[in-house]
Amino acid sequence: MSDVADKPSASKGLKSLRLTPTAAIAGIILIFWIIVAFFGPALAPYGEAEIIGESFGPIGGEGLLGTDKLGRDILTRLLYGVRTTLFLALITTVISFVVGVVLGFSAAILRGWFDICISRLVEAFMAFPSTMLALVVIGAMGTSITVLIMTVGLVLSIGVFRVSRAIGMDISVMDYVESARARGEGVWWIITREVLPNAMPPLIAEFGLRFTFSILFLSGLSFLGLGVQEPAADWGLMVQENMGGIFLGSSSALIPAACIASLTICMNLIVDWFQQRQQGETVLEKME
Fold first, then answer.
1. What does the pLDDT read at residue 180?
2. In this predicted structure, what is the pLDDT of residue 12?
3. Other Cβ atoms within 10 Å of 144 Cβ, number
């Protein structure tokens, strides 16, 4: 009877590991945008800043998706903008994870004065809204791409530090970590060989969430005029510079906004599926 009773729960756990239809569709859309980021500029019908017609031209006119406020092709700007948006979001997320994970795991392992100092410093920065903090830094240091990347990366690392520190605290009390300490292993060895491999599943999910937030954050800064600057194409900048076209019946601002929404929603759906998959694997391990 016990074997029969165990079979439904096992099959349920296996089903949770499969790719759901929603996650599959989200993955296809996400792969599409990645491919466009690599090959889109080569397929663009016009130059990134080339003027091809009148201001706020209709869909199907001079351009397939219309033209923006300066008469540039919307489709071309989208194809160039996806590379900028994804590249900036990826590199800022990587920077935030390198800084946040190293400091978070170090604080969890070393504890004492190091943990107290870093935690208090992070709490001080958390007193400021992330957007306001970024606006102050970028406004003071300039709107170059380097300043934008470093500022957003460091701002996002605050949240990554808190998550990685909490994960590190749980792992640092495990027997294998205590054994490594007893052997005299250094902090970096413990982080890379013991803590990080066992923290990968939650960190991967957190990376996806931070990547999504980075896209929205960078697009918001571009919308406020402190992100990517003209004549470079960026989806957030495209929304900002074509807002006036909404009152003229133009969709030049709505199309990049829809692209941002599709990218972030699909990324969130993939992260949700991954978290459910990890929960399913945990259930299977417990049953075994």
1. 81
2. 46
3. 11
